Amino acid sequence: MLVVATPCAACKILRRKCAETCILAPYFPPVEPLKFIMAHRVFGASNIIKFLQLYVISQAHLRQKELPESRRADAVSSMVYEANARIRDPVYGSAGAIFQLQNQVKELQAQLAKAQAEVVNIQCQHAALFCNETSNSHQPSFQFITGSDEIFEGNNPTFDIDQESLWDTIWS
Fold it and tell me: The organism sits in which domain of life (predicted)?
């Protein structure tokens, strides 16, 4: 085994010599020791190594197969994310973060729906005002008399009704 000049973050933290064939070296560079510290706290070094070496049981052949090297970087990234989430929230981990984000999306969707409803309401009010303005210019105005015998001009004619006689007809 050849010894690498600068050990990876994992070998440095574990205080061991970093071989050229170190499986952790490509994913835990010496400049990012915190990345390994977090994953090591939650999963442990031996489990990280096992996870990188072994994939899952192949359903077709019912045997374990190696995790392809093209997917190992994603696996390490997922382990580091889950470790950080698990340290922040020991009970729910990343599921708690996902749940919180889903709730935030629901709240934002509700706010968006409310804002869209307000926009539609304002547009309807604007359209109604526009229709009233255009219809006022084409309709003749009527004169009507109020109870105080004042004459007003308007679009809605009303009638002078004796309110005392109205009450008499209701209760008689």
Answer: Eukaryota
